[in-house]
Design a protein that fits this description.
Elements: E1 3-7, H1 11-22, E2 26-28, E3 38-41, H2 48-53, E4 61-64, E5 81-86, E6 104-108, H3 111-124, E7 128-130, H4 133-163, H5 171-181, H6 187-190, H7 194-197, H8 200-209, H9 214-236
Parallel strand pairs: 1-2, 1-3, 3-4, 4-5, 6-7
Antiparallel strand pairs: 5-6
Length: 237
């Protein structure tokens, strides 16, 4: 594929535009480009159905980049379609990110299309995997827990420090060690804290400290109970 029509201007689209051009692929942004080899849609999830239905070009190889939208969203528009899903949080502000280290997850309508998508993905990344729509959706769910929820937990931690006139940067060495350890062991083996120890008195003290933030109390309680259940299950195995 030497000539690709790219639909979208968000974070992932910007990454693809840069990465593809760097690897010698011609990129067009005009929907009137009927001579393109393929069309990549990189837009918000709720916009795919209408954008694809109204797209003026039919029959081309069509690709999207979503973690949660099935590849079959292209059915009826073309017989050759698929997904190249970057398994990474991407921002236009990223300056030093190594694109070769971003896993690209490929789903395709048929073997021929799969080979074309793999070839294209390998131009951009050293980590390319073929998965199904169902597997991609489950990996997207896992990413929400690993990235989005983790980030929210850190946001709460920083706010607790700031609201009590404490230095939130003191959290940084702790976070660095946490993520460094995850490179060597499964997270379940690294779990520490009052919930694992079933230290009810400490848990109650923490919940009392959060009395002005009932939503954080709920997060703390649910997370603690989930950790306790996980720990009990692990011990019984």
């Amino acid at each position: 594929m030497k000539n690709i029509l790219l639909v979208g201007n968000g974070n992932v689209a910007s990454y693809l535009r840069k990465a593809l051009k760097t690897n010698g692929v011609s990129i067009s942004d005009s929907s009137n480009n009927k001579d393109c080899d393929a069309v990549i849609f990189s837009i918000t999830d709720d916009a795919y159905v209408d954008a694809i239905a109204s797209f003026p070009v039919d029959g081309k190889l069509m690709i999207h980049t979503s973690g949660s939208v099935p590849s079959t969203v292209f059915s009826g528009k073309t017989n050759h379609f698929g997904v190249i899903y970057p398994y990474q949080t991407i921002s236009k502000q990223d300056k030093n990110i190594n694109y070769r280290n971003i896993p690209l997850l490929v789903t395709a309508s048929d073997k021929e299309t799969q080979e074309m998508l793999i070839d294209l993905a390998k131009k951009l990344s050293d980590i390319v995997r073929v998965i199904s729509d169902e597997q991609r959706l489950k990996l997207h769910l896992a990413a929400v827990f690993a990235n989005n929820f983790t980030n929210h937990m850190i946001t709460i931690a920083q706010k607790i420090a700031e609201e009590n006139n404490l230095d939130a940067t003191l959290l940084e060495p702790l976070l660095e060690k946490t993520f460094w350890q995850l490179k060597n062991k499964p997270a379940a083996e690294l779990q520490t804290g009052p919930a694992v120890r079933n230290d009810i008195k400490i848990i109650e003290k923490h919940l009392n400290l959060l009395e002005n933030h009932p939503e954080w109390q709920k997060v703390y309680s649910f997370a603690s109970e989930s950790i306790r259940k996980e720990h009990r299950t692990k011990k019984s195995e």
